[in-house]
Design a protein that fits this description.
Structural class: alpha+beta
Strand order of the largest sheet: 6-7-5-4-9-8
CATH architecture of one domain: Orthogonal Bundle
Number of strands: 11
Strand content: 5-15%
CATH topology of one domain: Fic-like fold
Oligomer: single chain
Distance between the termini: 82 Å
Helix content: 40-55%
Number of helices: 22
Length: 502
């Protein structure tokens, strides 16, 4: 039997016309059609019924229930629930089973001029109507509820406000007010009016139950999608058994290590110098006449990461966290006045396809992240969480990567552990892992990358600048990622060889 009988459409509908009905019966008897639902036949004898219905669902609904309105949660979601429930407003109420779907017919108003024409003669509730419908009382269980829970509606209203601004909520409320009488949904409009008023801070926050909506009402809105990623990283870190790499470096060795930290952290961000040039800038105060601002970036970053007292500071409260971010940012970017040193961004920023947290959500998202940070184990796990929190929020116009790594290493220094340095050759591994967490919610890679970067950093010698520089070079650290791979120090037995050479 072929996938679909030749010259017959995949879906054929029953008819009250006697001639059509007789023809349909002959096609069924000759096994050219088969029945898959009341008044619904198919010429497809290969695929399962639910697959056939799924790809033809709106054609079927439009034929069986002409001019019905896709309504309630179906309208807000733009389709069926994951369990296959579809809600239609029609001339009568009934529950109908189709392969893979449960169709809930709800008696109610027909489509108005505000509702949207959909496929195959169907309509879809306008967004204002859909919100009013979702504020009706529903007594079904969660899977078969015609309405979304109040918390979900509040979250969607907050999302609308985040993306399109507060005026979008005012327009939604005005449109709902205009249609409420004709739909006999005055009670639902009063509920919607209270919700929007609370989100816009013209009514009491007690009207709201959603954490994200309550946060906006209290003036500290946050990005809920980021919290999902933060929570995944939090869980992954709690499940990981990360090593404890205690630092035994002397003060002189720490200064040398801090130099390489400042050098590589700036190189990743595009402030590229030869290592010898960077050494002259930091230790001999030789500022290139053509690149004074770039030189300041290296110097200022070194000033922060080489200051033992500064690097022993970790957040003691949320306000202290914000203060550390702003003061350190002001220090490293003081020469670049166009980047608003020490001030959070006022315009959105992005890197490739990654859009970072919107300016008005920065403080609230940092607060939610900080609350998780406090529950992460002190040490490498907490350092990784701090780095990702700052990098993912991207609170400043520029310098976010350097700030994320400074905050990370301060956590390690305070805990008495080795810092993490990401050399040039390892840059793509690091950035790819960050993107995987940001775009795909895959947090294991960033943990693995930073764990290895700390191991690598801890295995190199820092007894003098010359020894350290040659060790980094022997591991291909200064090469571009396309030129080489980072070589493990223990395989090269670096320290003895370099000492002999020097």
């Amino acid at each position: 039997m072929q996938n679909a009988t030749k010259n017959l459409p995949e879906i054929v509908f029953g008819s009250s016309n006697k001639a059509d009905s007789q023809r349909l019966s002959r096609l069924v008897k000759s096994q050219q059609l088969r029945k898959i639902a009341p008044r619904v036949y198919t010429s497809n004898f290969k695929d399962n019924d639910d697959i056939i219905v799924r790809r033809n669902i709106y054609q079927i609904l439009g034929k069986l229930f002409p001019k019905a309105v896709l309504s309630h949660r179906t309208a807000l979601d733009g389709g069926a629930t994951p369990d296959g429930h579809i809600f239609l407003t029609f001339g009568y109420a009934r529950k109908i089973k189709l392969p893979g779907f449960t169709v809930h017919l709800l008696k109610g108003p027909e489509a108005t001029t505000d509702d949207r024409q959909f496929l195959d003669g169907l309509y879809m509730s306008s967004i204002p109507r859909a919100y009013l419908e979702n504020l009706q009382t529903s007594h079904e269980d969660s899977a078969a509820r015609k309405t979304h829970p109040r918390e979900v509606l509040e979250g969607r209203l907050d999302q609308l406000c985040r993306i399109q601004g507060e005026e979008s909520l005012n327009k939604l409320r005005d449109s709902a007010r205009a249609i409420a009488d004709s739909l006999h949904m005055q009670t639902q409009f009063k509920k919607l009016n209270k919700l929007i008023g609370a989100i816009l801070r013209t009514r009491l926050v007690s009207e709201l139950s959603s954490p994200v909506a309550r946060a906006r009402s209290l003036g500290i809105p946050y990005d809920p999608e980021r919290l999902i990623i933060f929570n995944r990283l939090f869980e992954e870190l709690n499940q990981s058994k990360l090593p404890i790499r205690v630092s035994t470096l002397s003060q002189n060795e720490i200064q040398i290590l801090a130099f390489f930290e400042a050098y590589f952290s700036n190189y990743i961000e595009g402030t590229e110098f030869e290592i010898s040039e960077a050494y002259d800038i930091v230790f001999r105060q030789k500022i290139p006449a053509q690149r004074p601002l770039d030189a300041h970036d290296i110097l200022a970053t070194f000033r922060v990461v080489s200051d033992s007292a500064e690097m022993h500071k970790t957040p003691e409260s949320f306000d202290h966290f914000l203060d550390l971010l702003k003061t350190r940012h002001h220090t490293i970017l003081a020469a670049r006045t166009d980047t608003a040193p020490g001030e959070f961004k006022q315009i959105p920023n992005r890197a490739g396809e990654t859009h970072f947290v919107a300016p008005d959500l920065v403080k609230g998202t940092l607060l939610k992240g900080y609350e998780m940070y406090r529950a992460v184990d002190v040490g490498l796990a907490r350092a990784i969480f701090m780095m990702f929190l700052v990098a993912e929020v991207h609170p400043f116009v520029d310098g976010n990567g350097r700030m994320a790594r400074i905050m990370m290493n301060a956590e390690l220094v305070k805990a008495g552990l080795y810092r993490i340095i990401v050399p040039t050759v390892y840059r793509d591994d690091y950035l790819t892992a960050l993107r995987a967490a940001s775009r795909s919610d895959k947090t294991k890679p960033i943990i693995s990358v930073l764990d290895y970067a700390q191991l690598f950093t801890s295995q190199l010698p820092y007894s003098s600048y010359e020894i350290a520089e040659q060790a980094w070079r022997a591991c291909n650290a200064f090469k571009e990622p396309t030129e080489a791979k980072l070589l493990p120090p223990e395989l090269l037995n670096l320290a003895p060889k370099i000492v002999e050479q020097i």
